[in-house]
Amino acid sequence: MTRYRALADELAHSIRTGVFRPGERLPSVRQTCAARRLSPATVFQAYYLLEEQGLVESRPRSGYYVASHPPARLPEPETPSRPDGDSRTLDVSALVFEVQQSAMYRDLVPFGSAFPSPLLFPLPRLGRALAASAVELDPWCTVDDLTPGHAGLRRQISQRYLVDGIAVAADEIVITNGALEALNLSIAAVTRPGDAVLVESPCFYAALQTLERNGLRAVEVPTHPRDGVDLDALETAIKRHAPRACWLMPTFQNPLGATMPEPAKRALVELLAVHDIALIEDDVYAELHFGRERSLPAKAFDRDGRVLHCSSFSKCLAPGYRIGWVAAGRHRQAIARLKLTGTLNTNVPAQLAIARYLERGGYERHLRRLRAALATQQAQYLDAIARHFPEGVRVTRPQGGYFLWLELPPGSDALRLHRQALEHGISLAPGPIFSARREFGTGLRLNVGHPLDERADAALRTLGVLVARA
Amino acid sequence: MTRYRALADELAHSIRTGVFRPGERLPSVRQTCAARRLSPATVFQAYYLLEEQGLVESRPRSGYYVASHPPARLPEPETPSRPDGDSRTLDVSALVFEVQQSAMYRDLVPFGSAFPSPLLFPLPRLGRALAASAVELDPWCTVDDLTPGHAGLRRQISQRYLVDGIAVAADEIVITNGALEALNLSIAAVTRPGDAVLVESPCFYAALQTLERNGLRAVEVPTHPRDGVDLDALETAIKRHAPRACWLMPTFQNPLGATMPEPAKRALVELLAVHDIALIEDDVYAELHFGRERSLPAKAFDRDGRVLHCSSFSKCLAPGYRIGWVAAGRHRQAIARLKLTGTLNTNVPAQLAIARYLERGGYERHLRRLRAALATQQAQYLDAIARHFPEGVRVTRPQGGYFLWLELPPGSDALRLHRQALEHGISLAPGPIFSARREFGTGLRLNVGHPLDERADAALRTLGVLVARA
């Protein structure tokens, strides 16, 4: 499975980036077999997959060509959000719970879910690593691996930063119960109740819930659905509200899928340095890039330890293991102390298991497979949405992750659609849960992390009808 | 090992409770072998152990007798604490960190540690349960077992309550990252910044740290070193400060080891019901009772869901697994929501592993062994302390857990002793870290959860010299 998917992914990338143009002939199966030392079956499988995705078409007795009519696509949203610029205390948590609670049942079509399909992860192999770690466990680990966490795991994480040229020492890293604890600890370390915190608009609802719980004031900053937060608007907000921190997702933002270009990330960190503001960088989708290169995190441009880079293995390797971390820069000690008084420590066997898995290799191979699967699913969903949804709908095309953001036609009501969809056994994540002012009434986050099977396709058709009717 | 320890434990209990009195002859080895269907080797081993503990003496050609001069004992502390009755915001956290950080090295004699020896736990057998759970993991568990947690584990915990006649439904239980998260969630659920919270005096330093972090005011209530918190004083404090919650450890209190008699626990819950105050009950040492019967928790007397009963498997079964829970009564939904926005979920394979371990049986056998080991160690430490420490020292004799509380002679300085001891490679938990006002300058919590080997005995001798010199 790996080989043909890898080949299909590579060719899809070449098509998307214009190396092969619409109507051009792809290398023949025979050529490709010889050049790549692959079997004909593998190459055929790759071409079939590309055909299924609508990227190539076969012409009898002639070979494979880049599709001249690429799959139907709806336009992308192009308008940045326009929040009012005020700061406010929050009361969104109850709405978020109401919506999210309804998405937690296994028998719903999980378009509103925050998680990709667990079947995409190497859980059996991880399980064997966990089994070996558990059986060989040195009892003293339960004492030695107290916060900041298992030294071997922190070293492995540090090495992964280094591959991207980012210097993060192992002793700057604190292991946490998933990224969410890392983010919560970060907010607690750099703010006091009443402080202003800048967030994207729309933004991840858990950020709003954390600000609400900590008595902080949220300032929503205009955000472009493809390029992320607007730096001019961010500077204006800084001058007006003197915030203590920004909580941002510069890469594959939740819910938009937006990614700030690297120069913008660099400028962001420089701007925050001038005003001495901490950046809490939520980077949990970083590994899920469809292109060859990852987009560097803002942390890569941090010169004075002001970026608290939060991530985890939950979305890219080990769902349910609850192993995350924060590369905490100058806030390292504060974070470790908050962790010690909050949850004391993180599950030791799981830390050892992930360290062992990373040591033994195979992570890159898994990631390539996962990225290819998510890219394929995204293409299939985009195609199905174009087929089933009415004109006037816009949809993003993120370069990674597993969320699409839809803008429904003016006058639509995403919260109403969410309730109607539930009656059809479909969960949704409606726009208002991503906003301090319950804006984005026509917005919708759609999870494409689950295969587009018949049930999902039928669910999209149902949604299309509901949207058209409204 | 099990059998002779069990026999020794039973005989030690009979001696301590006066069934056999000083100077009386114990049943002969032959009688005991026949009555218990044990081998002579097993019975001899039990008698040797009791001899080592100073509880029995052998008389040549006559048999074993209850020691006529029972092991030397220092007097118990008898005076309840006398806090000033005021409420105050806190700034003890830095001191606690300074002291606790110094205790985290494996090569120190761990008298200041909060953990018992990890060698006391069935980590290999647990590891096999974890291995089986990990390898057989249903991928959808990572979604289904989201907070409040794995249904099978919550059912097992509910059944354990039922054995003691306590009705706690599985759906009242929220699984947490150890008891500390349970306690933190409980405080967050029932208080707002500025509220007063009643605590024991002295009390567990993590309680003080949590109150400090949440901007709460601590009111320390007089506490007896054997019988726990003083209910009259508690009522006075309620009337004066109108607290929102009490955070108490009614059983094997940390650091005193005190246990409130059951009628006092009942009266406590009734008193709190009259004033509509929540009880956060930290009950992590409950399973570590030396006597045959456990002391019921205050939760047993809860009629209206006001007790948040917090516990974990960290001190009795699975250190490092970070599996705790809160039986949250009427605060169940609030707790689950705080957990969802705080750490989202608890490690799924560990939840499954503990559920599997509990299902397969063997937990009771492990607990009997653990209790016997801790009881034996306590007796050995008490004996060694009596030999090595000067007159004027008092020491508690808790009926469970693995802490002793020492009161040094007037004028001693436990913080200074802690620093001196560190230079000798010995960690200590000095009294002031258990107090909002850094009181208990002559108090010392001593961990007896590690075997009294030669190094530990030498360390006690060193401490005795340092105390005598001061």
UniProtKB/TrEMBL annotation, chains A, B:
Keywords: Aminotransferase, DNA-binding, Pyridoxal phosphate, Transcription, Transcription regulation, Transferase. Coiled coil: none annotated. Residues 1-69 form the HTH gntR-type domain. Residues 75-87 have a biased composition (Basic and acidic residues). It comes from the Bacteria. One of its GO terms (molecular function) is pyridoxal phosphate binding. In the C-terminal section; belongs to the class-I pyridoxal-phosphate-dependent aminotransferase family. This is GntR family transcriptional regulator. It comes from Marilutibacter maris.
